[in-house]
Amino acid sequence: FIGSGDSVVLSGGVIYNNAETMEFDVGGSGTLTLNDYSIEGAGDCVFDGSGISGTISANLSPSARVIISGADLDGSTITGDVNLKGSTVTTLTDMVITGALDFDTAGTYNLVDCTVEEVTNSSGGAVTLNLTNSTVNTNTGPSITVVSLATVTFTGIPIGAEFRVYDDDLDGNEITIGT
User: Fold this and answer.
1) Separation CA 14–CA 1 (nearest Å)
2) Residues 140 and 158 sit within 8 Å (Cβ to Cβ)
3) Which of 7, 96, 102, 153 has the fewest CB atoms below 10 angstroms from its CB?
4) pLDDT tens across 99-140, in order?
5) What is the per-residue burial (b if ≥16 Cβ within 10 Å, else e) of 26-38?
6) Contact of 24 with 72, CB cutoff 8 Å
7) For residue 13, what pLDDT is reported?
8) Could you read off the pLDDT of 81-91 as tens digits, one per residue?
9) CA dist., res. 147 & res. 132, Å (int)
10) Is this structure's pTM higher than 0.70?
11) Within a 10 A sphere around the Cβ of 98, how many other Cβ atoms?
12) Which residues contact residue 104 at a Cβ distance below 8 angstroms, ignoring those fewer than 6 apart?
C-alpha cells in the first residue's frame, strides 16, 4: 500500500512464478509510476487507485488476470485477460490485450490505438465500446455494442455546394449521417 503523499517509481520487473495475487494499491494523493515494469508468472495483478500510471508488460499465470481499478496503464501489453473494474477508467490508449477485456460496470468506454482479442461484459447492463484506430477480434458480449469511429475529410468542395454519399455495398441499408 502506498499512502497519501507517498511517491514510488518501479522500473525493471519481477519474475514471480507464483499464482499468488499481487496488489498495487495507492490511496489518497499517493503515486506509483511504472516504467516499463514487467511482471512474469504472477497470479491476479490488481492495480487499484487513480495515482497509478505507467506501462507494464504482464505475462501472468494461467487463468490469472490484470485488474484495473482507477489506474492508468496506457501503453501496456498484457498477455492474458484484463478486468476493468468500475467506471473510473473509461478510455484505454495504445494497449495490447491478448485475452479478454471484461467490463464489470455498464457504460461507454473508448479504445484508442488498441488491439484486443476479445471483449466480454459481466456488468449485467449495456456497454458501448467506441473504437478509434483499434481492433477487437471477438465480441462475446452480452450486450456490447462496438462502434468503429472514423473521421472523413472532404476537400475541394465549395462552401454551400451540395454533395451526396451513396451506399455502395448493396445491402439495402441507408447510410446515417451524424451519428
Assistant:
1) 17
2) no
3) 153
4) 999 999 999 999 999 999 999 999 999 999 999 999 999 999
5) beeebbbebeebb
6) no
7) 84
8) 999 999 999 99
9) 9
10) yes
11) 16
12) 83, 84, 85, 86, 122, 123
Q: Amino acid letter at 136? A: V
Neighbours of 175 (CB within 10 A): 9
Predicted confidence (pLDDT) per residue in 56-81, tens digit: 999 998 899 999 999 999 999 999 99
Provide DSSP, 34-52: EEEEEEEEES-EEEESTTE
Grouping H, G, I as helix, E, B as strand and the rest as coil, residue 27 is coil
**pLDDT for 151-177, tens place per residue?**
778 788 888 888 776 666 666 666 655
Using alpha carbons only, what angle is made at residue 56 by residues 103 and 148, rounded to the nearest 5 degrees?
45
Q: What are the φ/ψ torsions at residue 97 (nearest 5 degrees)?
A: -125, 115
Determine the Cα–Cα distance for residues 169 and 137; give it in Å rounded to an integer: 22
Return the residue matching grid coordinates 465480441.
Answer: 139
Residue 111 amino acid letter: L
